Amino acid sequence: MAYFASFAQHTWKIFVAERKPGWKNLLPLFAVCSFVSLIANVLFLLAGYNLLTDYPVSAALVFTLLWVILSISLCFFRHLRCFIALFFLSCGMHEGRNTLVAAGTGALVAGNIQNIFHNLKQLADSVICILESQRLSFLSEYIKAIWWVYNQSKALGNPFKDIVVVNDKLNVSYSVLDESLKLRLNKTRLGIQDVANQISSTLVFLMSLVKKVFPLLGTAFILLGTYRFLQKFLDPHSIRFKNTYITKEFIRYNEQQWQQQKLSVLPLSKGERKVYAMVPSFCQTHKERKCMIHFFLPVLANLCIWILFGAVDYLLYWLIFSMSKHLQDFPELEVHLKLYYHKNAGKFIFNNGEIVDNKTSFKVPLFEHVCIPTPQLSLSATWIQLGTILLFITVLGLFTSTFIQLKILVATSFFPRVDMKRIEYLHAKLLNRRSKLSERNMKKKRKSFAMLDFWFPVLQAMRRARKKEDVAKDSNV
């Protein structure tokens, strides 16, 4: 472990130091820069993976070319080395959080929203299917009843042989004059298909946008945020930027001031420890805790939206599933018929109800089982992805103050002159703050003494008497 720590420290010194002439100094620097360039290019390749999957050969060429160019550039440009190091740390801060939130939204679109649309389409198709099936189901059962009447009349015999002759063959056909209903059903079906095609094309576009563009946009925002951080750190007019950390160089500078018999600011007071933090340290100040809360606020807002869509998806699934279950358990409509010949009346008589002989029954299903919708539920697959994303965001949020400290330490390692100016400014700021606090305390004491003299005039008289005695003694002497 100690060997690994010493090796990492030596590698960091090579990466941070200025480029020295000579091949012996250039080769270790190029090796370190090549390794850093490899990691950076892997991240860039993951960001543009969905764009480059269709062109694997070109992706390999682009990866190799970028690796070589970035490795050489890192060797010759120290600012670029600092930028890459800060970029790695920025991936774990607000920019990385935004990228993960965008990935979670993409998973939500791919899972819950697409499943909601699928279940709604299933419900609409089921309604149309039920309308079409019920349009002809009763007619088929009516034809069965006609055949039954014909068979029963043959079994009973023909009482009107002299008037009516019943043939042995019966041809039954029907025609349905429901052109208006057909037109309405076709119009409804076409309307649903148009809406479904529009929503499907929109979802496909959003999915391709989320998978291809959002990772690249997230990487672009991380690069932009890193550039803004480095610009503010190097700007001489923004010397206050993130200048609330007590580093080892600050402690060394304070010791030098103390050796020169100047004022020291260490150790910090209780109130100062709430504002200024020793780095590196895992103890968070009040300001850092506020930053952590601000880190989680957008995540909580997006989490509420995710939960809302997940609840809508589950409620729609539960509604369609319970409705389908009740439709499957719905009893069929059963009609009992009885046909017999009444001799006295001289006619056939139909009767319904419970009968013993010559009975038949017709069962007419109110809902076809083929038309009953079968909903789908995608909460498990979607929320496994969202849970993984939330776990990473939580870890990043808990260590956001540590990443800020590391960014400050990395920037000060590359630019020691800027670091010294920041240290001098912070040291003077602490001294001025303490002097102002001491003046305020003196004013408070004076006000308190004045208030005592106002409410207790005896004390004021005793003070005046003491002053007169002191003056008299001085005059006698």
Your description of this structure?
The chain has 477 residues and is mainly alpha-helical. Helix content is 74%, strand content 5%. It has 14 helices and 5 strands. It has helices spanning 2-16, 23-47, 49-52, 56-76, 78-90, 94-156, 179-234, 248-259, 270-273, 286-328, 379-398, 400-414, 416-455, 457-476, and strands at residues 245-246, 277-278, 333-342, 347-351, 359-364. The protein has a 3-stranded antiparallel beta sheet with strand order 4-3-5, with helices on one face. Strand 3 and strand 4 (347-351) form a beta hairpin. Helix 5 packs across helix 7 (179-234) and helix 6 (94-156) runs antiparallel to helix 7 (179-234). The longest helix has 63 residues, at 94-156. The protein is elongated.
Keywords:
477 residues; mainly alpha; three-stranded antiparallel beta sheet; two-stranded parallel sheet; 14 helices; 74% helix; elongated
Could you outline the blueprint of secondary structure elements for this entry?
Layout: H1 2-16, H2 23-47, H3 49-52, H4 56-76, H5 78-90, H6 94-156, H7 179-234, E1 245-246, H8 248-259, H9 270-273, E2 277-278, H10 286-328, E3 333-342, E4 347-351, E5 359-364, H11 379-398, H12 400-414, H13 416-455, H14 457-476
Helix pairs in contact: 2-4, 4-5, 5-7, 5-12, 6-7, 6-10, 6-11, 8-13, 10-11, 12-13, 13-14
